[in-house]
Amino acid sequence: MSVRDRFGDRLQVLKDAVNGITALDTEYPSLFTQLCRFYSDKRGVHFWGIDVEEDYSILIDSMIADGVLEAT
Length: 72
Prior knowledge:
Order of helices and strands: HHHHH
Helix content: 55-70%
Distance between the termini: 16 Å
């Protein structure tokens, strides 16, 4: 399952986050948590849990790698 499959109903929010328009950690904290859990569980991405900014950067990089910005 891809991030686009799992979070397809929030795809515009994800695109806005990748483009720097939306801050997931402050504007959509539950979605931020769900995304981190998805990438940790399904993709083996390691989040440090100490520095939110670093975790946020890791998450955004992971979403870019997963093609969140690709046309639907």
